[in-house]
Write a structure and sequence with these properties.
alpha+beta, two-stranded antiparallel sheet, two-stranded parallel ribbon, 3 helices
């Protein structure tokens, strides 16, 4: 790695996978939140039975774990590839 960085002046970049948003996604998010709030008002113990997470990665196609995917380059590629699921 020292040769790549010092002699070739290459840097390590992590790939970031993003999902393409659809025009109706904000409407769906709002509907989900309103539905969840109304359910929580009627069922006081609902929030104790639901697990909330800030991040989740699911691969149905068998792709490699993105945390182990890096590329070497002389410049930050700022490349963006949107995939629909």
């Amino acid at each position: 790695m020292k040769i790549l960085r010092k002699r070739l002046q290459l840097y390590l970049y992590k790939l970031q996978l993003v999902q393409k948003l659809q025009p109706d996604d904000p409407i769906k998010r709002l509907a989900f939140c309103e539905d969840l709030l109304s359910r929580m008002e009627t069922d006081r113990g609902l929030s104790e039975r639901v697990i909330f997470s800030g991040e989740a990665t699911f691969f149905l196609s068998g792709k490699v774990n993105r945390h182990n995917t890096r590329i070497w380059g002389s410049q930050n590629p700022h490349a963006l590839i949107e995939m629909e699921r």
